[in-house]
Amino acid sequence: MSRTLEIAAAAAALVVEQGLEYAAAKRRAARDLGGRPELPSNEQVEDAVREHLAIFCADTQPAELRALREVALQWMQRLAEFRPHLAGAAWRGTATRQSALHIDLYCDDPKAPEIALINEGVDYDTASAARAGGGEPASVLTVASFSRTLGEAVTVHLSLHDLDEQRGALKPDARGRSWRGDLAALQRLMAQEPA
């Protein structure tokens, strides 16, 4: 096994078992394994995550993924006016109960989603996150949403983007798969899954 694939496998375990995001998992795995090797791509980590899930979580992960997608669906319907797109592990099919949900919102007024949450009495935290390709950091609103199926709260990160950024939202990965999907795409995906 090459050093890069070894890091990908170690990172996959961190993603599945501790809920780390890919970038953090790759850095920690590389540090834990020593040296300064080339880090694996996100696609290589995702392949390793899928392998890890198939070996260690095949009996629990599909139901956990479905529960997370149900929570995402509720939030995307609730915030439909802001053109939500599900991203991350829940969209790509690798989420477990350790995973946070990532929903991108596209709107003219970056304060509008925050005002909507305030008007609904939803408690949230604010933060900022680096954007791919640089630029000004994106505002992120984080809420906790209880999942009856999982019996626990799920972390939901709502990343705020300009409406113009929606054009590039469905840019595919190196294999032609989308990194995110809108409400209709999520509904189609869930309709294809066993309930």
Number of strands: 6
The oligomeric state is: single chain
The CATH homologous superfamily of the largest domain is named Beta Polymerase, domain 2
Shape: globular
List unreliable stretches of 5+ residues.
none
Largest sheet: 6 strands, mixed
Could you report the average pLDDT, rounded to the nearest whole number?
92
The CATH class of the largest domain, by name, is Alpha Beta
What descriptors fit this protein?
single chain; 195 residues; alpha+beta; Beta Polymerase, domain 2; 2 domains; 6-stranded mixed β-sheet; 7 helices; 6 strands; 43% helix; globular
Question: What's a concise summary of this model?
Answer:
The protein has helices spanning 3-18, 22-33, 42-56, 61-78, 88-92, 112-119, 183-192; strands at residues 85-87, 101-107, 125-129, 138-147, 152-162, 180-182.
Can you characterise this structure?
There is one protein chain. The chain is an alpha+beta fold. The protein folds into two domains: 3-56, no CATH class; 61-192, Beta Polymerase, domain 2 (2-Layer Sandwich). It is 43% helix and 20% strand. The chain is built from seven helices and six strands; from the N terminus they run ααααβαβαββββα. The protein has helices at 3-18, 22-33, 42-56, 61-78, 88-92, 112-119, 183-192, and strands at 85-87, 101-107, 125-129, 138-147, 152-162, 180-182. A six-stranded mixed beta sheet has the order 3-4-5-2-1-6. A hairpin with a 4-residue loop joins strand 4 and strand 5. Helix 1 crosses helix 2 (22-33) and helix 1 (3-18) packs across helix 3. The N and C termini lie far apart (37 Å). The model has no long low-confidence stretch (mean pLDDT 92).
